[in-house]
Amino acid sequence: xxxxxxxxxxxxxxxxxxxxxAATEQRDVAFRQVHxxxxxxxxxxxxxxxxxxxxxxxxxxxxxxxxxxxVVVLTDDDLKDxxxxxxxxxxxxxxxxxxxxxxxxxxxxxxxxxxxxxxRAYVLFRDALERSGRVxxxxxxxxxxxxxxxLRVRDGVLVLETMLWPDEIRTPDFKFLEENIDVRSQxxxxxxxxxxxxxxxxxxxAYRDAYREALESLVQAKxxxxxxxxxxxxxxxxxxxxxxxxxxxxxxxxxxxxxxxxAKDKDSGxxxxxxxxxxxxxxxxxxxxxxDTQEKPDTQAKPASSRRKKTA
Length: 312
Known about the structure:
- The structure is a single chain.
- It contains six helices and nine strands; from the N terminus they run ββββαββαβββαααα.
- The chain is an alpha+beta fold.
- The longest helix is centred in the C-terminal third of the chain and has 43 residues, at 247-289.
- It is extended.
- The model is unreliable at 289-312 (pLDDT under 50).
């Protein structure tokens, strides 16, 4: 894994240097948008709506649009002076029972790895937190955005779970909540009985993404049936069957093709040079044999260097 953030846990007077790693990853089948007819990739460009010109990324800034259509432009210089007290620091605010944290607040999970200088303090904090049965409520700034977070222990590792702010949670506004719906006690008992019957321990490994598996099988079946489209310009390694190649294979094929073209150019240059040397020697001997003959420009044969330059 590659760390995405480095900072420290601030716990009272204790500072624990740590690195942050993403604890989860999406396993969706990755698709590209392509042209139906030839498989060419669809490209998106940043185009200004005013002058219609493509805008380089270096000229793109943030803009806050008003109801009138006017825009407040904010540059990097404007944003760098904003206070961000928890930058590169996980600031522990207090500890709370884990049951008090509403799961709807959960946003994203990260693993925390201690730096070599902070291993002992990390283990001490981890063990004390696990024995307490509580979670640490903290603030942290990741990618220039401050968030609430919870620190808990999982499999011997401190896990940082970023949380949404309270005003980011929508209030359910459904009409049925205002209706007086009568539920009979017998129905309630039967529903409770069904819940008891279906109750078992949760094992996440018992479940699988059937849709993703079916989608992967569909793609594989098309590969095996050679139902593929090769966009123009795609390089294919010699001796390999037609079919989609991953990035590594494409790069390897590109390197091999570049080496082959370079070797071909060198061989061609040596061959032309070898052919030109006898001709030049023959013209020199002929000129020496006829010293009284006026030398005329040779329009039939040009020096090898000139021909190579023209060919290039």
